Amino acid sequence: MAAEISVNKLDAAQATAELARLAAVLTRANAAYHREDAPEVTDAEYDRLKRRNAAIEVAFPQLKRADSPSEQIGAPVSETFSKVRHAVAMLSLGNAFSDDDVADFEERVARYLGMSGGIAFTAEPKIDGLSLSLRYEAGQLVQAATRGDGETGENVTNNARMISDIPKTLIGAPEVLEVRGEVYMGHADFAALNVAQEAKGDKPFANPRNAAAGSLRQLDARITKARPLGFFAYAWGEVSEPLADTQMGAIARLAVLGFSTNPLTGRFEGAGALIAHYRKIEEQRATLGYDIDGVVYKVDDLELQRRLGFRSTTPRWAIAHKFPAEIAHTWVESIDIQVGRTGALSPVARLTPVTVGGVVVSNATLHNPDYIAGRDSKGGLIREGRDIRFGDWVEVYRAGDVIPKVRDVDITKRSADSVPYVFPDVCPECGSPAVREEGDSVARCTGGLICPAQAVEKLKHFVGRSAFDIDGLGKKQIEMFFKDESLPIREPADIFTLAARDAKQFTKLKNRDGWGDLSASNLFEAIEVKRTIPLNRLIFALGIRHVGESSAALLAGHYGSWKALVTMLDSAKDHTGEAWEELLSIDGVGAVMATALVDTFHSTETRAAIDRLVAELEIQDVVASDTSGSPVAGKTVVFTGTLEQMTRAEAKGRAETLGAKVSGSVSKKTDIVIAGPGAGSKAKKAEALGVEIMSESEWLKLIGEGG
Ligand code: IVH
């Protein structure tokens, strides 16, 4: 590229050309950044280009483009594809990494169902592409959507129509049929595409998966058409009538309807046979012609699948057995400490960049001080006690999409003057002491709210995908607003006062570098939309230690409203009493989580910040959506004694699916106790409290499953 001419030396023609170039570069950089497929420029370079663009616009206001990058922030993706709410959520899969994990999976399934084995499973390759849901009505393809966050995806119907593996019409299909599967790009096509990209001066794709994603998510469907994409069908969403009785049968039916299904799909009994098939697929991996990253096992009998159901975001009836991680070797250039939202000091190795399984890696986690020192949490040795130091030659690995890790170190390549790494005892961000509590593997900054790193990480978590998910307010914008002097966001409540504060300002956000009328009003609008928030998202967004997405959903489901939750946490302040016991009785809430919750709400400053936030919000109570007709929705039930018709786990799963809360202990709040043979103290307590007691058969009849 020719050297850049400084802005004050540009003439009008050069300025026009330069604005066009910057618009193209910044739009592309924006797209790459927000899709996180492949960032193309560094943050610093991005900011520099944006400043240059703004400066040219100031010098030549008449040349400002209609699509000026100054007017764009946030994710172009969400503005360009419309959103689609999936009729049936698109789930992910739990992982198995070892043969033992597979045996455990089989055992878990059998235990849940109360069977002693003899359960058949399908096994098929796990395609490394991106999942797509195709909706057919009366045999016509009416909609195609990406997975997105599992609940809402992007409408890519026009693009999907360009893929030859995807039938546009079906003959003999159910009235409504959602077919799910994976879009991928084969190795040969990927190589050819990259040659073409480079010939055009475009950046090559990092791997076939990114190429497939980039090719499908094109606003101009003609581009998708020119890209050779394949599609394997392996699952379904909404169907107006069942496809078959078994997974194998359903896949065969999809094949008859004209879909490509994977030829390595088979049916097996027992973990041993599944693992044998896994080995066979692993042997063929290199010659398949497309990327796979494991083998998926699914319970074959669809009635058993129904009984097994789901656990927050993954089915109990399936698992992905992943191939071993890819490894590579490189140098540790330095060790940095990152401070997370809960104050944890996480050591990160900065590496000489190296390609690990098709992706360039320059950072890897070192977990915690013990890991660096070559010890595990119990004082045992890892890597036979070899520690990790600056300048070491290390083995790094990457499994799936997770952050790369350092596995081993070659101390024969270590220089004689190297010294062990000394873990800091103060927070590198705020200088507060960093302490390691007993039983905790990490050191934590004690700065709390005064630590800027904790505050900024909490805010990033707050706006994250499973939390408030505000369009146009991502990590990058949080960093910017956090540092802003006149219009700062320092705590969550500040997000919701942003527009009002901006209105009072002399320099409005819309006049700032990188912002315009449209981008500012879009942001305010996106924030306004999220002022109304479901209870579970709010709880998760608070970023309380030990309270993840599924725990937040559990708490929201149990208490139903913010008011009920806070009232309970307030009364549980001393870690005793009825409210405390109730909290502990929630299946899935242990003492550690309960303590973190209660203590967070009783830390004066944190509580004040939470109250300031809540005052800005409209919190939606939990409505058990699909349980409206359920006779037990909202009821608290306790199972005690022996169940004879299904296992305890299945009984609990069924009750929860029907909107009931399952508790482990009986109190005044219990509505029903289901007592089987051998029921003891719980049944007695229920009797004393006047709680309704019924047998398992009565319960099954109540929920409509009685024979
Ligand atoms: S089944 C309810 N089968 O893996 C289970 N998924 O990690 C639905 N994937 O989001 C998924 N090959 O994108 C299934 N043969 C296969 C698959 C497969 C690839 C992807 C899919 C899913 C992800 C979960």
Shape: globular
Radius of gyration: 28 Å
Strand order in the largest sheet: 2-13-10-3-9
| Structural category | alpha+beta
**Share in β-strands:** 15-25%
For the record, the CATH architecture of the largest domain stands as 2-Layer Sandwich
Domain count: the total is 5
Helix content: 25-40%
Please count the helical segments: 26
Uncertain residue ranges: 73-79
User: What's the CATH C level of the largest domain?
Assistant: Alpha Beta
- N-to-C CA distance: 77 Å
What's the mean pLDDT score?
Answer: 90
- Which sheet architecture does the biggest sheet show? 5 strands, mixed
CATH fold title of the largest domain: D-amino Acid Aminotransferase, Chain A, domain 1
Question: How would you describe what is shown here?
Answer:
The protein has 26 helices and 26 strands. The protein has 707 residues and is an alpha+beta fold. The protein has five domains: 7-72 and 325-413, Nucleic acid-binding proteins (OB fold (Dihydrolipoamide Acetyltransferase, E2P), Beta Barrel); 83-312, 2-Layer Sandwich (D-amino Acid Aminotransferase, Chain A, domain 1); 470-529, no CATH class; 534-620, 5' to 3' exonuclease, C-terminal subdomain (DNA polymerase, domain 1, Orthogonal Bundle), CATH 1.10.150; 636-702, 3-Layer(aba) Sandwich (Rossmann fold), CATH 3.40.50. The strands form eight sheets. A five-stranded mixed sheet has the order 2-13-10-3-9. A hairpin with a 6-residue loop joins strand 17 and strand 18 (405-409). Helix 4 (99-113) runs antiparallel to helix 10 and helix 18 packs across helix 19 (549-559). The model is unreliable at 73-79 (pLDDT under 50). Residues 91-93, 124, 126-127, 131, 147, 182, 234-235, 296, 315, 318, 320 line the site of 2-(butylsulfanyl)adenosine.
